[in-house]
Amino acid sequence: MPALQDMVHFKSRFSMGKIFANLSLTQRVMTIIFFGILFVGITIAIMLENEHHKSVLQQNKMQAVTFLYGIERDLIETEANDPKVLNQILQKAATHRNGELEFSLFSLSLLNAEGGVVTKTSQSKEHQMVMGQTQGADFDSMAGHHVQLLQKENSPFAGGEVQYFHDDKTGQKITTMTVSIPVKNTDYILSANLDLKKTMAAIEQTDRVFEQTLFGSFAIGFLVLYGVIDFAIRKGLVNPIRKISIVTSDISHGNFSARIGDLCCPELQHLGTSVDRMAENIEQLISEQETAYLQSLKSLMKALEAKDPYTAQHSARVAKFSVLLGKQVGLPPKELKLLEKGALMHDLGKIGVPDNVLNKPSALDDAEFLQMKSHPVTTAKIMKPLSRFKEFAQIAAWHHERWDGKGYPDGLQGEEIPILARIVCIADTWDAMTGDRIYRKGMSQEKAISIMENEKDSGQWDPYLLQEFISLIKENNQPSIEMETRQSA
After folding, report:
1. Where are the transmembrane segments (predicted)?
2. How far apart, in Å, do the first and last CA atoms of the chain sit?
3. Which of 192, 288, 337, 451 has the most CB atoms in a 10 Å sphere around its CB?
């Protein structure tokens, strides 16, 4: 059986630990604070209630002493020694003043110097029954003890301790207090046995109101505290951690320009600064690698220019026309720069095409055309290491794709083709139509515009971009643009 209890206890601890481990940081903090405040609140409530009980009972005791002093005056004024007369005085005082008291009287007793009962009065048969069944002997013993105490210490009063008795007949708990005073100029001791039923009922009622108020205040205070702490934790800890997580995720996905910046939590600022410094170092390293790689590409462009001067000049003109069209459709400056560099290198893969195919003075046969068609893929492979400039590879790979999906190498269609590749496609076609080749003379600009307008819906180009390009050429004096572009190339 003990082993079973230990197992249940272990499982309970394990389950509670598992639940606590699954809580968020805010929930953990608030759980600890909740139980801490609850413990402190209950402790304070018990202390306050105990102090309140002591205060009320002390008030009852002092009221009882004052009540007995009033009876004392009546006894002194009467100067009687007859027990019947003395009993009448006690009975009259108890009857007339009982309604003014915060307690009820079980009995009033007049004792002699030896502790013997001279006379005693009870308020009701019920009280007499209770006195007889429960604590009559105890009261007489307590009163006798008070006689000895008052004689020994010469105190103005004695008693005031709360006593509890159990009524076997009714099952009720009876709360009493015995208070005694010496009667001046006599050998008598006057004792009152108090029934604290009304007092305890009032205390219980006050306790209920106090506990309800305390619970309400605790609930409201906890909710307010929860909101404040939740806000503080989110602002000072959760949000900064989330920001660090987002930035580190961006960095891990190649966005090395992402930065954490300033955080409101000093403890996390060191971590954020370290992450930013790491990102800067990575970005600098990659930038240096990319710069070196771009230099290699420029060297390849020089080699291609030596191998095929036309391709180099053609690439420069395509870049110029591409940028003009990019500005026409409102591309941001950053994309315009990518567009220009990507267009300059869009035919770099032709360096892998044999010279006899690249510079053939006549039309290409099918086998030669297949070799020529491989240059976009070759260019894209060359550009692939430039991970931050993926647009270069996209332009290189897909500037021969068609809007209707019949292009090469991947048969992309419509919006699947990146906009920069679609722009270069139009600029590349335009320069191929108007530029002079080894085996033919370039057509006039008017004829080229006419062909493009007639084939606007043929599916080769993006209709919107093509119309913008035609408008650009017409509105900005195409011959002058053409001349300026060819001279700069």
Report:
1. 20-48, 214-233
2. 95
3. 192
Q: What is the CATH number of domain 24-195?
A: 3.30.450.20
pTM over 0.85: no
What residue spans define the domains of the chain?
24-195, 308-488
pLDDT at 466: 93
pLDDT at 403: 93
Q: Do domains 24-195 and 308-488 have the same CATH topology?
A: no
Q: Are 176 and 193 in contact (CB under 8 A)?
A: yes
Task: Give the torsion through C-alpha atoms of 304, 284, 326, 412, to 10 deg.
Answer: 70
Which of 330-368 are b and which e, b meaning 16 or more Cβ less than 10 Å from the residue's Cβ?
ebeeebbebbebbbbbbbbbbbbbeeebbeeeeeeeeeb
Q: Which pLDDT does position 138 carry in this prediction? A: 52
Annotate 70-94 with b (16+ C-beta within 10 A) or e (fewer): ebbeebeeeeeeeeeebbebbeebb
- Which of the given ranges, 1-5, 212-216, 264-268, has the highest pLDDT on average? 212-216
The domain 308-488 is placed in CATH, from the list 2.60.40.10, 1.10.3210.10, 3.30.450.20, 3.40.50.410, at: 1.10.3210.10
